[in-house]
């Protein structure tokens, strides 16, 4: 299957870019929006998810990969989170069908995906891959080697809290929540995932957990790794259910 690539700009920064991937000559069965990780400082960028996007297009999905400002260029809290919400608005303005897209976030990208839907009562479907969302607990565990402090430093200096920078959507915001845990994740400890799952259950979100044995952190978004098969199957099925 051939693939059409294009770019949608959603703001003044060079980082305000959405990479779009569509099957050529045929309509997509459904749509998926991806948020990359990299601990808000762009250890990873949107182009790193291109192989995953292409693998999804080959399954007849249209895919949007959101780029956003890094912490060192305007993305410190709430900058990158605001970018995520603006990106969804830009997609909707281009085509209202994007309102039905499944949102997937990897690592810190899960934080941005969740922040983008919080308080909007849009009933979005979320797939979180090795998520880093609960900032206070992530910081206490040293996840990302100081990344949470870098991301929220200005906010904390102004008297804010990590709780304020941790999105807490309710059932009106999230129609379904799937969480994928890498069984040998060297970046996101099980303790963080356990706390997050417990919090979401307490908030009534009823997350479905999927564990990929022996997978490492980046395997969940690398189609060349066996661990990514769970991601592909889950995103394809979730997007199909929304079509």
Topology record:
Elements: E1 3-9, E2 17-23, E3 30-35, H1 50-57, E4 61-66, H2 79-94, E5 102-106, H3 108-117, E6 124-129, H4 135-140, H5 147-157, E7 174-182, H6 190-202, E8 208-212, H7 228-242
Parallel strand pairs: 3-4, 3-5, 5-6, 6-7, 7-8
Antiparallel strand pairs: 1-2, 2-4
Helix pairs in contact: 2-3
Explain what you see.
GO terms for molecular function: hydrolase activity. Keywords: Hydrolase. Residues 18-118 form the BD-FAE-like domain. This is Alpha/beta hydrolase. InterPro entries: AB_hydrolase_fold, BD-FAE-like_dom, GDXG_lipolytic_enzyme. This protein is of the alpha/beta class and 243 residues long. It has one domain (3-242): Alpha/Beta hydrolase fold, catalytic domain (Rossmann fold), CATH 3.40.50. The chain is built from 7 helices and 8 strands. The protein has helices at residues 50-57, 79-94, 108-117, 135-140, 147-157, 190-202, 228-242, and strands at 3-9, 17-23, 30-35, 61-66, 102-106, 124-129, 174-182, 208-212. Strands 1-2-4-3-5-6-7-8 form an 8-stranded mixed β-sheet, sandwiched between helices. α6 (190-202) links the parallel β7 and β8. The longest helix is centred in the middle third of the chain and has 16 residues, at 79-94. The two termini are 20 Å apart.
């Amino acid at each position: 299957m051939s693939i059409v690539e294009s770019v949608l700009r959603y703001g003044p920064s060079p980082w305000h870019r959405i990479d779009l991937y569509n099957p050529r000559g045929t309509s997509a069965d459904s749509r998926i929006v991806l948020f990359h990780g990299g601990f808000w400082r762009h250890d990873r960028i949107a182009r790193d998810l291109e192989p995953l996007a292409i693998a999804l297009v080959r399954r007849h999905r249209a895919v949007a990969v959101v780029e956003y400002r890094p912490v060192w260029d305007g993305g410190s809290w709430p900058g990158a989170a605001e970018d995520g919400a603006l990106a969804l608005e830009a997609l909707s303005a281009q085509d209202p069908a994007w309102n039905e897209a499944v949102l997937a976030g990897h690592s810190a990208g899960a934080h941005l995906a969740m922040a983008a839907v919080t308080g909007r009562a849009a009933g979005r479907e979320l797939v979180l891959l090795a998520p880093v969302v609960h900032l206070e607990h992530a910081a206490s565990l040293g996840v990302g080697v100081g990344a949470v402090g870098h991301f929220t430093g200005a906010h904390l200096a102004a008297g804010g809290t990590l709780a304020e920078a941790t999105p807490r959507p309710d059932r009106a915001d999230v129609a379904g929540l799937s969480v994928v845990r890498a069984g040998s994740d060297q970046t996101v400890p099980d303790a963080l995932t356990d706390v997050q799952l417990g919090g979401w259950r307490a908030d009534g979100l009823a997350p479905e957990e999927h564990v990929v044995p022996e997978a490492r952190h980046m395997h969940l978004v690398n189609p060349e790794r066996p661990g990514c098969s769970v991601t592909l199957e889950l995103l394809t099925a979730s997007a199909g259910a929304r079509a």
